[in-house]
């Protein structure tokens, strides 16, 4: 499938910010089943984008804007050719052994409730890593209802799990905390999801997880949809949790009254017919 | 305490040669005079403002650290041994860090278990494959040493992150020289006052290639609420460099600048006394207001040097400590000159069996615990506590290490009723630059002022002494 993405982030300030500095993780890299046809980043500020690679192999762009401004726009836009790999994630850049992804973080610490939940899921399945992960993705989907209201970017797995509500980020954090507690290396994935119902406008990007299964490697699970990732998914960045894969991390100096607007469009690209 | 080695009297009561002059001087001195000098010392410390903060104490945020007027003396041959041992250890630590964040040969060789590194919070993925100037990660190390016999020194702890205490080493000497010039006339004591020069030379030597001929070095402090703030401002002053907080620096076009009245000035080397977690809200804790947004990006691009490097905690972590002798052998193919405190790793079945057999004699520590929490002191624990600990160790052996209870050496100390032996340790400061290791002769001697106490921490009633290394 050829997926076309545009993702516009607009910041407005009631009184101008004197300085903005940001690090973006918004550039997909190719792997088996994902070919980046074209991709560009455009920042409204007059600045230089510095490209680097982070610890987990994600491409980062950093910039700072020192001209007082009342708004800032970051646009990423491009096309990615995807194939369904039954959730298998191969050909990615791996800087660490999978066991690194057993580390807990503040956002993904398993509390007693998550530990018990994970244990119950594991006990209900045959003693097989893949079966347990399939069980876990269904269980998280059933247990935590998708709801954009009660949580925010700093909500922990434990908080979301006790609320039983959250967005894709929260469901992913709960899955990660549970999987790691069962000894399964697991990581957070940020990217985009193409909806098959024809609706292209979305409020945000998507998030899911990858879990490491012996003999298979990394397998992508989406707890928000209770399934493995397919060719409807564009994988952009991975990390130990949301913070490691966040599309934007930044700081603003001065200025007041910031409002943030995000407009994401994910659609199928017009297929060009070869003649 | 009878079994302890005494720095002045050894184990048999004979005055050791280095202490002969001090012994004679102490005999001549009237207790009233010493008391008077103690009061003068306190007055001087107050005037200088050398204080430290104790967290969690409501009544006072700033306190004077008790100072003992009787110096601790090391002979030149004792120091020569320490110096060789410290140089070797810090060299190995730097090689280990380069390897851990690079080729990981020591993991491939199976010397350190992989999970101890990768699942350790102090291992920083951000440092993977990161180049640092001249392969120096730990520019300033504070190695805690205890002595248990005439020739036996143990390393108790390596401090490879942001070790503090060097300001006391410098101040204690200055005050001793003012109070007891006559005592200095009896000895040839190696100077320590060149430490700031040595530190500055070390820091300048590791400036990035892009730096100016005379690199701009700054000291980054978390600010006035930090317990070591006095030391930060003291050192910045002695080094003649700017003392800055995160908000005084900014990153622009991948370069770090300091805000000045004449506009931004490029910064080449940051002697940072801010922990990794708080250095850069864009890379680590997003809620940190102590750091500099974008600093890690500039660091990764090699535009600025951080001293110490990020991620050095993976060298001084408790879980790694017991592997230090193997680390020295692996990288240097030498026997370690300074020994570790014998440590049993409960993750290894043979060690676990021994520990469970001898719980009543050992100190058992949680690998990731700190500040005395999750600790069993076998000789003073009752049966119930030992039994409870046994269950905990058996449930998760990996999480525990055990060590013998140590008889730390004692040193004569001025207490209410005169001179009495008190337990001490030593923290020398090891500076590693472009191609030299510099160690100012001496360090910070901490003393447990309570009779019989082994706790030398200043937060728990410990004091300090001037540390003398004799020139001949």
Automatic annotation (TrEMBL), chain A:
<dbReference type="InterPro" id="IPR038765">
    <property type="entry name" value="Papain-like_cys_pep_sf"/>
</dbReference>
<dbReference type="InterPro" id="IPR002931">
    <property type="entry name" value="Transglutaminase-like"/>
</dbReference>
<protein>
    <submittedName>
        <fullName>Transglutaminase family protein</fullName>
    </submittedName>
</protein>
<dbReference type="Pfam" id="PF01841">
    <property type="entry name" value="Transglut_core"/>
</dbReference>
<dbReference type="InterPro" id="IPR013589">
    <property type="entry name" value="Bac_transglu_N"/>
</dbReference>
<dbReference type="Pfam" id="PF08379">
    <property type="entry name" value="Bact_transglu_N"/>
</dbReference>
<feature type="domain" description="Transglutaminase-like">
    <location>
        <begin position="160"/>
        <end position="225"/>
    </location>
</feature>
Automatic annotation (TrEMBL), chain B:
<dbReference type="InterPro" id="IPR025841">
    <property type="entry name" value="CP_ATPgrasp_2"/>
</dbReference>
<dbReference type="InterPro" id="IPR016450">
    <property type="entry name" value="UCP005522"/>
</dbReference>
<feature type="domain" description="Circularly permuted ATP-grasp type 2">
    <location>
        <begin position="71"/>
        <end position="448"/>
    </location>
</feature>
<dbReference type="InterPro" id="IPR051680">
    <property type="entry name" value="ATP-dep_Glu-Cys_Ligase-2"/>
</dbReference>
<dbReference type="Pfam" id="PF14403">
    <property type="entry name" value="CP_ATPgrasp_2"/>
</dbReference>
<protein>
    <submittedName>
        <fullName>Circularly permuted type 2 ATP-grasp protein</fullName>
    </submittedName>
</protein>
């Amino acid at each position: 499938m050829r997926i076309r993405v545009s993702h516009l982030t607009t910041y407005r300030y009631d009184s101008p910010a004197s300085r903005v500095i940001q690090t973006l993780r918004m550039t997909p890299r190719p792997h088996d089943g994902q070919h980046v046809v074209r991709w560009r980043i455009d920042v409204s500020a007059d600045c230089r984008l510095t490209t680097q690679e982070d610890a987990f192999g994600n491409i980062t762009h950093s910039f700072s804007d020192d001209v007082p401004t009342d708004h800032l726009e970051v646009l990423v836009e491009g096309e990615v050719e995807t194939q369904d790999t039954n959730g298998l994630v191969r050909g990615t850049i791996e800087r660490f052994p999978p066991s690194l992804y057993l580390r807990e973080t503040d956002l993904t610490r398993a509390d007693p409730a998550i530990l018990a939940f994970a244990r119950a899921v594991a006990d209900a399945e045959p003693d097989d890593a893949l079966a347990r992960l399939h069980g876990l993705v269904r269980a998280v989907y059933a247990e935590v209802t998708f709801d954009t209201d009660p949580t925010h970017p700093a909500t922990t797995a434990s908080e979301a799990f006790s609320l039983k509500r959250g967005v894709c980020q929260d469901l992913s954090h709960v899955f990660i905390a549970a999987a790691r507690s069962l000894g399964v290396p697991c990581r957070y994935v940020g990217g985009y999801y193409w909806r098959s119902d024809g609706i292209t406008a979305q409020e945000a990007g998507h998030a899911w997880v990858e879990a490491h299964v012996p003999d298979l490697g990394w397998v992508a699970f989406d707890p928000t949809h209770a399934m493995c990732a397919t060719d409807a998914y564009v994988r952009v960045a991975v990390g130990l949790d949301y913070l490691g894969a966040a599309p934007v991390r930044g700081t603003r100096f001065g200025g007041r009254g910031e409002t943030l607007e995000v407009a994401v469009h994910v659609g199928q690209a017009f297929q060009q017919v070869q003649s | 305490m009878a079994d302890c080695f005494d720095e002045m009297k050894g184990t048999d009561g004979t005055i050791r040669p280095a202490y002969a002059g001090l012994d004679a001087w102490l005999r001549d001195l009237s207790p009233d005079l010493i008391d008077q000098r103690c009061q003068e010392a306190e007055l001087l410390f107050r005037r200088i403002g050398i204080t430290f903060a104790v967290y969690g104490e409501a009544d006072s945020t700033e306190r004077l650290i008790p100072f003992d007027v009787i110096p601790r003396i090391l002979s030149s041959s004792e120091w020569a041994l320490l110096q060789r041992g410290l140089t070797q250890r810090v060299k190995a630590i730097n090689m280990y860090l380069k390897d851990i964040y690079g080729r990981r040969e020591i993991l491939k060789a199976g010397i350190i278990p992989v999970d101890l590194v990768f699942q350790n919070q102090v291992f920083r993925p951000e440092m993977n494959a990161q180049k640092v100037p001249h392969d120096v990660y730990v520019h300033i190390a504070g190695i805690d040493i205890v002595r248990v016999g005439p020739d036996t020194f143990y390393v108790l702890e390596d401090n490879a992150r942001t070790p503090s205490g060097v300001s006391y080493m410098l101040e204690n000497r200055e005050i001793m020289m003012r109070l007891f010039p006559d005592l200095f006339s009896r000895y040839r004591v190696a100077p320590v006052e060149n430490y700031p020069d040595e530190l500055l030379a070390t820091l300048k030597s590791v400036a990035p290639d892009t730096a100016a001929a005379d690199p701009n070095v700054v000291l980054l402090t978390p600010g006035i609420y930090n317990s070591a703030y006095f030391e930060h401002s003291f050192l910045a002053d002695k080094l003649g460099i700017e003392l800055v907080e995160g908000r005084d620096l900014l990153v622009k076009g991948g370069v770090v600048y300091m805000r000045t009245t004449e506009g931004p000035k490029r910064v080449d080397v940051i002697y940072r006394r801010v922990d990794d977690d708080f250095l850069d809200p864009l890379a680590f804790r997003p809620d940190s207001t102590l750091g500099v947004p974008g600093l890690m990006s500039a660091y990764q691009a090699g535009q600025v040097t951080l001293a110490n490097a990020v991620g050095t905690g993976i060298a001084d972590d408790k879980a790694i400590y017991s592997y230090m002798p193997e680390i020295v052998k692996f990288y240097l193919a030498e026997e370690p000159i300074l020994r570790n405190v014998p440590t049993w790793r409960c993750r290894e079945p043979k060690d676990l069996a021994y520990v469970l057999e001898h719980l009543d004699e050992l100190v058992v520590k949680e690998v990731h615990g700190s500040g005395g929490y999750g600790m069993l002191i076998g000789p003073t624990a009752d049966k119930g506590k030992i039994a409870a600990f046994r269950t905990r160790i058996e449930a998760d052996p990996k999480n525990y290490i055990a060590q013998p209870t140590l008889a730390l050496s004692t040193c004569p100390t001025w207490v209410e009723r005169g001179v009495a032996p008190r337990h001490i340790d030593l923290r020398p400061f090891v500076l590693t630059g472009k191609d030299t290791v510099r160690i100012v002769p001496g360090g910070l001697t901490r003393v447990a002022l309570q009779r019989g106490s082994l706790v030398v921490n200043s937060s728990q009633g410990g004091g300090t002494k001037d540390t003398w290394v004799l020139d001949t």
